[in-house]
Structures are given as C-alpha cells and as structure tokens.
Specification:
Largest interface: A-B, 62 and 55 residues
Number of strands of chain B: 19
Mean pLDDT of chain B: 91
Strand content of chain A: 15-25%
Number of helices of chain B: 12
Strand order of the largest sheet of chain A: 3-4-2-1-5-6-7
Shape of chain A: globular
Number of helices of chain A: 9
Oligomer: heterodimer
CATH architecture of the largest domain in chain A: 3-Layer(aba) Sandwich
CATH topology of the largest domain in chain A: Rossmann fold
Distance between the termini of chain A: 17 Å
Distance between the termini of chain B: 41 Å
Low-confidence stretches of chain B: none
Amino acid sequence: MAILVDENSRICIQGITGKEGSFHAEQMIQYGSKVVCGVTPKKGGTTFMGLCVYNTVKEAVQEQQVDVSCIFVPAPFAPDAILEASEAGIKVVVCITEGIPILDMAKVLAHLRRNGTTLIGPNCPGIISPGRTKVGIMPGHIHKKGKIGVISRSGTLTYEVVYQLTRAGFGQSTCIGIGGDPLIGTDFTFHLKRFREDPQTEAVVLIGEIGGTMEEEAADYVLESSYPKPVFAFIAGLTAPPEKRMGHAGAIISGGKGKAEDKIVALKKAGIRIIEDLSSLGKTVASSLGEMGIQPDK
Amino acid sequence: MKLYEYQGKELLRQKGILVPKGVVLEEEDQLEKALDSIKGPPWVVKAQVHAGGRGKAGGIAVARDKEELKEALRKILRQRIKTAQTGQKEIFVKKVLLEEYTPHVKEYYIGITMDRSKALPVLLFSTMGGMEIEEVAKESPKAISKVMVDPLLGLMPYKARELVYGLSHMPPFELFPQLERLFSRLYELYWDMDLTLLEINPLCVTEKGELIALDAKLSMDENALFRHKNIKDEEEKDPLEAEAQAYGLNYIKMEGDVGVMVNGAGLAMATMDIIKLAGREPANFLDVGGGASQAMVKKGFEIIMKDPNVKMIFVNIFGGILRCDVLARGMLQALEGISLGVPLIVRLEGTNVEPGREILQNSEIRFLVAQDLEDAIALIRLSGEKRG
C-alpha cells in the first residue's frame, strides 16, 4: 500500500508538449509511472512518446481512464488547468507550477472543495510512492520503497531528507511535497490522517518551514488523535528575518506570526520528535526507530 | 510587495473612498507650490516608509503654522528614522506626504487579509481604531468583529451586516449604510488589485458623519504583478537584492559573513540554519532555483562575491532539475581568472553528481569538498578557526 498514488494510477500530463512537461513526462515513464496521455491545447491528435495528446482534459477522460493529472502549465494559465482537471472528474491533481496568484488559488480551492478534488501543490515537487510510481519532478533514484511517510512544504529540502533516510536504511511509503505557497490544496493533517490508515507506513517525517500555522495545526491533530505512529519533524527557517519572503511565497514571518520557534514548541508539546540538526536527520530518525523496535527496510 | 501610504491612498481615492487631500514632497522647495492646493493650517507631514510605529518614532507631525511646517519637514524629510518595527536598521525618508488636517470625533479600524488555513479572505472591523489592532484583540477581543468571505460570491451585504452587528461597541446606526458601502468597495479593491493586505487604521468619523481613511497600509501579491503593469515597486532596495531580482534570483542580504548559494528555498533556509549550528552567521539567503541555468549560477556567485562582509562561501546543491554538472560549469565561468581570497566549501549531491565533481576537480578552482552536510559543518568550523 501507499497513499494517493500507486503502480495502478493512470496519469495524464497537462502541458505535456512544453519544455518542463515533456522532460518530466519522460522521466516519469522511465521511473515506471503509468503515464497514459497528455493534454496541450491546439496539439490534439498528435502523439508524444507514443502517447495520445488531447486538446482538452474532457476529451482525454472520454477516451482514457485517468486517475491523476500532473500539471506543468505556466502560472497565469495554471488555475484554469487545475479547474479543468477537477471538472473532468479527476480525483487527484498535482500542480507543479510556481508563482500562481493567491486570490486565483482562493477561488480554485473554493471550487475544488465542491468537486471533492484533492489538489497537491501548487509550487511543489509532486508525489512519489517509491518502487510504484512517481507523479512529479523529484529525482527517483534517491528514493527507496519502505515504511516512512514524508510530508513536506519544500522541494530540494525533501530530496535531502529522503536521501539521508535512504542512506540510513529506511525507505519511504509515499513522499508528498504539499507546496511552498501560502494557499495549497492539502496540509500536513490531511496526509497524517491517510498515513495513519496505511499499513505500509510505520512512521512519518514532517518537513515544515516558517510562515502560516499548518505545523501548529498538525501538532494539535497529533495530540488530540493520540496519533498511533511515531512522528518526526524538521522546521526550516530558524535564522530567517521577519517580513522577508524567503524564496517560497508562503515562507514569510508576518506580524510576528509563523516563526520557527513557535512551531517547534507546538510540535514538541504534541510529542513529535524535533530534529534540530538537518545534517544528522537520517541517523537520528534511524536510531530513534531502532529503539522503538522498528527495523530498517531491506 | 508593500505599497507606500500615498500609493495606497491613490488607489482608495480612485475607488471613491474619501482620503485627506495630500501631495508627495521629495524636496523642501516643493512646499510653496504644494500649499497652493493643500489647505491649512493645520497640516500633517507623514514620512513615507514601510514600517509601522512611525508616529512614536517622530515620523508624523502636525504643524499649526508655516514655521512649524518647515521645521517638521527639516526633521523628517531626507532624514533617517528607526521605529519599533525596523529593528536596528534606520530607514532613509525619501518622500513625505503633506496632507490637510482632518478634524474628527472617532477612529475605527478596517482590515482585509487572507486566512491561510481556511483559504478564505477575512474582513476585520473595530470601532476602537487608532491603536495597534493586536492590542485591541488582546484586551477587548469582542471589540473586533471578523467575517470570512466566500471568494466565489464576493462580499454579500449580510456579511457586511454581520460585521457591524457582531461588535460589543457598535457604531451609530446612521453610519451603517456608509459603512456597508465602504466594506464592499474595499473588498472590491482587495480583490481587483490582488492585495495580500488592506488595512485602514485609523478610519476616522468626522463631526458631519463622513468616513475618511487617514492611513492606508496595502500590500500586493508579487505573483500577480503581471496583471497590474501600472503599479510600480517604489521601494528602495538593497543594491545587491535589486541586481539579483533583475536576474530572477531570490537573494536576501543578511548580517553574517558566510556567503551561501543553494538550489531551492527550503534547502536554502535549512542551509542558513546549519551555518548557525556551525557557530557562524549567514551573509545572505540565495536560492538559485530548481531549474537554474549556467548564467544564473554565475550571476549568483558574482553577487555573493560583491558583498564585502563575505569571509567564506558555502555552496550546497541537491541536484534535482538543476543538474550538478550545470552548476559546476556556472561556477567555473564565474570564477574564471578571479582569485577568490576566501575559503570555498562545495557540497554536491543528486542528479549528475559525478560529472559535476569531475568538472570542479579538473579546474583551477581551489575549494574544499564536503561529502555531506555533517562534513560541511565540520569544514565551516575548521575554516573559521584557521582564519582566527
């Protein structure tokens, strides 16, 4: 098992003929993901690596069974692309695009709530269930099939964490990059609930950062639900100055809110193990799990 | 992107919201001409800076005659001020807003922002304006009312009614129609201009019962600037930050002496934290992005080296989309024919790491290789000690 996506997930790539879309579609196919078709307006009827390209998502779902859409469309057009996938009935939509205006996302998210669509991102690396499927842009080879669920607001920082976990002998069930923007489709709590039900997942690693209150909300959930699996967390941005947007549009300490220190206090209170030194994260998680009798993945 | 008060008030005026009549001055000798259109005395002089707490810091003055007005200009315009919100840094006041004084009997507060966890715009209103809204919230929470707006519907009239009827200290009934109109116009402005914050504190009530915005704090979503080409970022930026921005690099100048170059914002923040763990302070935040080109890496390096405080450079790259060989070639280009003069620590991992390392090893560049982050911390400590 894994969460959200597995080896049977049939993937459609929106923006498949663009520079980013075509590169990553190829990478996903090489990883073994079931990419079944693509969508690019005006390119309908052509093919990409032997796959059908459609003008609209509606046409794509009429001809193919699609479970997941992965969006590589520039920011001004991405909100439209997300809504198109949602209206076509696709249940899991992954939006890689960075730079979508906040108010566009507010509108999109209000629609998605009505349609029951799960949106991962925007401004995210995507989802990978190692050894099964990859829907996104992460380097596949650093991952390993295993028992740790990873949820992160970041991209390359997630790769760093995953790489260390893999080197320390622990593989991953599913890794989700939920996105670095202020408004994103899902939060830590959403995925913690799914990892709780997933038999493959035996522990969860959260990678948070400054800005917003998502980490505090996750801490509340873990505490209130007496979360049955060990949870670890790393929070980036202890040295970040206030009122500056640290690369991610969502990573900003504003009006004294969103500080790393406050998040760490809340997470500790909920019994979540805080990793303070990123450089030894893999080893720390591994030895901690060892003490609990959770063995590394073969 | 923060807008100055005068930019914000211009947007309010265009939306039909009352603001005091005012003129922006950059030089003292613009005063005489300005007084042709600005009635007084009294007048108000307000420093145009991006920091709250201006009043307490001497950035706002009320002048009762022309002598006082000139004195106020001398004290504020082209001077440096330090407020509770600027920290240790002083900011230079390049412009002041000269306004007609507005006599009033009451001060209210209105704010619109985004509730990030609910993904809904939120409107805040209080009849206890003029002071820090955070303090009102602490001392008399019922004096602030709050409504969430459905972005698909916009601000419905019943929501505006909830906002005023929800207060422990309600405004007088005769102001209700005017307030409802104001809420709806402000929400339209918030939405149409892609604001992330719209705050009017104080909104004053005159004796005649008019509502006038005495201050305006507006911030725009930088990701939406492509559809607001008429709005200019007037902010005075650090010259290195401005240069980086022109090349699409995320660079923020900091106070320390370890220059940092990283791909990806989260890893860049975490790398700064690691430098602190190693007992040093970062000189900057620099995210060259997931898909940086050779030219961007070169530019990033140049900007780090232009900072005279930099005594050591740490490059931390986890190749995903950005391949390690591309980064290595960019560094080679940037450093060609330049003697760095400070230790350079490089940590490469991920996509195409082998060719990347090879390119650096076969070059003239002298650098220290960190095998992983633990190794990097040790090298940062060591290089620091060597230099004393």
